[in-house]
Design a protein that fits this description.
Layout (H helix, E strand, L loop, with lengths): L46 H4 L5 E4 L1 H4 L5 H14 L7 E4 L44 H9 L3 E7 L2 E2 H6 L10 H4 E6 L6 E4 L6 H15 L3 E5 L5 H17 L5 E4 L9 H7 L2 E3 L8 H13 L9 E3 L7 E2 L4 E2 L4 H13 L4 E3 L8 H8 L1 H9 L1 E6 L5 E7 L6 E7 L5 E6 L8 E6 L4 E7 L1 E6 L4 E6 L1
Parallel strand pairs: 1-2, 1-13, 2-3, 3-7, 7-8, 8-9, 9-10
Antiparallel strand pairs: 4-6, 5-6, 11-12, 14-15, 15-16, 16-21, 17-20, 18-19, 18-21
Length: 462
Amino acid sequence: MDFSRRNALLATVGASLAGLAPGAQAQAPSTSSSAGSAPVGAAVLSPSRLAPRPPMGWNSWNSFAGTITEAQALETAAIMREKLLPAGYDIFTVDIQWYEPEASSYTYNANPVPALDAHARLVPAPNRFPSARGGKGFAPLAARIHAMGMRFGIHVMRGISRQAVKLNLPILGTSVRARDIADTSSICSWNPDMYGVDMTKPGAQEYYDSVFRLYASWGVDFIKMDDMSRPYDAHEPEIEAAARAIARCGRPMVLSLSPGETPVLRGDHVRRHAQMWRISDDFWDEWPQLEAQFTRLENWTPFRSEGSWPDPDMLPLGRLALGERNSRFTPDEQRTLMSLWSITRSPLIMGGDLRHLDDATLALLVNPEVLAVNQASRDNRPHFIEDGVRVWSAASADGASRYLAVFNMGKDPREIAVPLATVGAGAKAMVRDLWERRDLGPVQGRLVTRLAPHASALYRLA
């Protein structure tokens, strides 16, 4: 089954991450404010400080579609705290349609009746999130996530609820109503929940300001905002509006734009308004999709920097798709996925159902030497060696070593020789296999490795 949104219609990094620069961590969420409310006078962080390293966390989409409940969220968060938080995965995100009382699968209801407040803003469906009753929203759940030492994220759709427009609800702090700012011609091609907002209309920015102030009052730390990056130019005013609203809301929030493919030509604009942005449509566990991400990540190399992270999407590992199946990626392909996301410093957002987390998948996610590449390398760049082979290198945080990732893209086993000088490693190097966590000894002139089909290797060259 194809679960693409188009067709279906994020600070604690474990001390085990060798080589992380002291003081580089993002500020951990405060748990002292009541119900996760935005701290009074909270400083607004610069975009680079909002996400100084690639965000790491878990998101409910690959496992639950839009159906996750509060009980399931808390069960999953407890496992995440135990299994993944020590390795640095600290953002727990509730994905799409938490406001939809009848969400049941990867297919959206054609005529949804979402939960709304009196000012046209979506709120958690109380039948699925009981602690939200009485106008509390996500504040109680966010407070519990914060108490676990993690940050809380939510998925939101671009625009204003069609139901709010139907009811013509008032916009907080203005004299206008939903119909005054809605652009009913601007709709999402795969989801029926929202209309776009006409940012030329009085009250439009005030609407977005009110939405993000609400999220701040709940204690939200991370926003995955959907139906934004495609078509990019058409949605540019709302991208800017969301970034402006976050800057005004009084609480630091990371903004992640979805889905892609974000146009590379808009790279300068997107990195000034968001900390993450999708470079593809939804990514699932099929080799052709993984193969395609190599070229996209190469193309986005000029725009990868502190606080700016091109996002090839979540990690479809472990149990997926409402429990229907395990990842279709072979063990070699799973390691290739993690090697690619690490050497390209892509956000690491686990998508699999943590309630069924097996030892092999956990080992992929928490290898400290691999995560150090993702979290603390620099000068990440691709190299051309030969057809059917992909090679990336990067510098270690201290500059004393080079990281080298080698990928066999073909259907047959292959011996690959990488000249050390090509990847900036000098004439001789001591080699360490990061996945196996063992030293391989010295090489001179070139490093030769034999890889199975779709397999990879990740080395540290000292």
